[in-house]
Design brief:
Rossmann fold; two-stranded parallel sheet; 9 helices; 10 strands
């Protein structure tokens, strides 16, 4: 499947009608993804929303239609932990011009390494790392020379600071942050027109708390002194989208939102690097 997609990217990009452009959001069935879809709809952006739960996606589409009936909303149901399904999904989208791809799908797992559930860890690694990397790579291959295109990957403050009792989750998000920052630099160094950016939320009131802690109810007021709503994070994402910065992050000291060029050092000196 990967070889077929590579050939499609080479031969069919010029046949796409670029007059109609779409924003893709994975993990759109709840939380930040759901709120982000609504925020982009208010900006008259046609949408392709992706998640496993079709009923939530249909509810989101109906809500968007009441807000902005003039835009198109395409639903794609996909389990992104199934790697083969990722290639199939991207192939299904080959005739749409995608000006923005937002990799939002992901989840966490709280618990010590000695007690964490390996089955859940496997799914988290598939989703947070593998799916994001494959989708990012496919998107970059196809759109790196198209103006006004963006890839936005959702990391976490846990992708820059190791959080106790969430070591494995933080490691997945360190990967997201490092991969996206490195990709952003690579695109700039090669004079590509596509831009890559990373959003790093702190505590945000979504389904994340319940899933990460394996509970049916989760009280953010009891767990955090400060936190943001999904709607607030969607607004922060739009601020990053509008900016020329690579990183948009929440400062955990005062929960302010900041835009930055990068966090990780980048070795741009050819003499220091492997040839």
């Amino acid at each position: 499947m990967e070889i077929e997609i590579e050939m499609d990217i080479e031969t069919e990009i010029e046949t796409i009608n670029a007059e109609k452009r779409y924003t893709v959001i994975t993990g759109a069935s709840s939380g930040i993804g759901y709120a982000t879809a609504i925020a982009f709809a208010k900006r008259n952006k046609d949408l392709i929303i992706i998640a496993r739960r079709i009923e939530n996606l249909e509810s989101l589409k109906n809500q968007i239609e009441t807000i902005n009936p003039d835009i198109e909303v395409i639903i794609k149901v996909c389990d992104l932990t199934d790697i083969q399904s990722i290639y199939t999904l991207f192939n299904e989208l080959r005739n749409y011009f995608i000006e923005t791809w937002i990799n939002n799908a992901g989840f966490g797992h709280y618990g010590s390494v000695s007690t964490q559930e390996l089955t859940k860890i496997e799914s988290m690694l598939h989703l947070n790392i593998e799916a994001l990397t494959i989708l990012s790579t496919l998107y970059v291959r196809k759109y790196h020379n198209h103006a006004n295109t963006q890839l936005i990957n959702i990391s976490s403050r846990g992708g820059y600071t190791i959080v106790p009792n969430a070591v494995t989750y933080c490691a997945t998000k360190f990967y997201v942050s490092a991969f996206t920052e490195g990709l952003a630099q690579e695109l700039i160094q090669t004079n590509a027109k596509l831009r890559a950016k990373v959003l790093a939320p702190a505590a945000t009131q979504t389904e994340f708390g319940k899933k990460a802690n394996n509970v049916s109810e989760y009280n953010y007021d009891k767990s955090f002194a400060k936190y943001h709503s999904a709607d607030q994070m969607a607004e922060f994402l739009l601020a990053l989208y509008d900016s020329d910065k690579t990183v948009g992050e929440v400062d955990t000291k005062d929960f302010s939102f900041q835009l930055k060029d990068s966090h990780f050092p980048y070795s741009g000196n050819p003499a220091e690097n492997q040839k």
